[in-house]
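Milestone M4 deliverable, item 7.
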Amino acid sequence: QVQLVESGGGSVQAGGSLTLSCAGPGYIYSSYCMGWFRQTPGKDREGVAYITSYRTTRYADSVKGRFTISKDDAKNTLYLQMNNLKPEDTAMYYCAARGPPVCTLTGTGFDYWGQGTQVTVSS
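Output delivered:
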């Protein structure tokens, strides 16, 4: 059983920044597609960003230019740097991993999920 553990969530004012982290087994970071997803009650899960094993990245239009996904294979950690946060970014954020070669923002095929970390942005 692969365990992914997110951290770094919290409450900030609009315009502020947070960095989320996701720790897990080492082999995940070197070969899997890893992504960040978010969900608010009553809404569908939304793909935020992903990074492939080759470090190709993709972002949802709603976060482009504000969020940056990265990973440190040596530290077995995935990151999501979130700048200029907006109230609409408020959600539970999850990291997830799926085996190669496909990487997608839909969440389909992601086998492993963390427990989530809450991000709350106030206006």
